[in-house]
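Shift notes (night). Ran FixB protein while the centrifuge was going.
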Amino acid sequence: MSKLSNIWVFSDIASRLPEVIAAGVALGEKVSAFVVGTESDIDAAFSLGATHVYYLGDKVSQRITEDYSTSMAQVIAANSENSLMLLAPTKRGKALASKLGAQLTAGVVNDAIEINLEDGIRAKHMAYGGLAVAEEKINSQVAIITLSSGIYEAPVADASHTGEAINVAFVEPASAIKCVERRAKQGQSVDLGKAKRVIGVGSGIGSKENLQIADELSGLMGAELGCSRPIAETEKWMERERYIGVSGVMLKPEIYFALGISGQIQHMVGALDSQTIFAVNKDKNAPIFQYVDYGIVGDINKVMPALIHALKA
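Came back to this:
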């Protein structure tokens, strides 16, 4: 696979930056990272493989990620005609991708699961709710892609790596959203895409109170707790960041344990890269049993306490 002369990268979440830079290293001869933060953030980008850092200054609480799109667009336009910009697939990352697409007249693909450079820039992504994989060829001079998690293996940081840092003046957007106040979001912050073990709960959990039992089980297993879409978006029992599926989190853990989840394809697309899949469902004909390595047909409200008892023993 041929490489592009330069890849631009950015992540608004530090934990996602290693994967994005890894993609840049795999696809480009040099990697130029946009950084908002401190000098240690610049050093971190270099240690992961960035050859150039375009520094946009310290984080300012009154600015949102998309406010930097004009500054980034001007740098990209001034430095290369044909280029690729890679971003983490976060809410802010996708919002930034859309603004950059408009400002650079660039094609945008979200949640790419594969990028190929053999015949131009091509990106594959899930379509029709995970029932198919679509491939898009981006013909614009600048291509913008948000990467699905787990596609590229994060590199080991090497503090001896260095490069060139360039200061970039912040350019006020023509019409910015005014940030009046920031408040800490209720609930625990989690990045399920990085978890080694995940327990997912679905509508079969029965009640919100039963989440406490699932949480106890996840603690004993050393797992993070995730959920199906109805639990997060319909019942609102858990944070949106814990929703597993084609339009939620794409998992790649060692173990995925599904409790009371029917196994519709929209959910399973987010879990199929798990090394080992366990499931408990009272319906022996539930679709999830087509995907599991180990399955139990039973009531999770009986199985969960039994598992907890066994683990404590």
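Residues 4-167 form a domain with the Rossmann fold fold (CATH 3.40.50.620). The longest helix spans residues 91-104.
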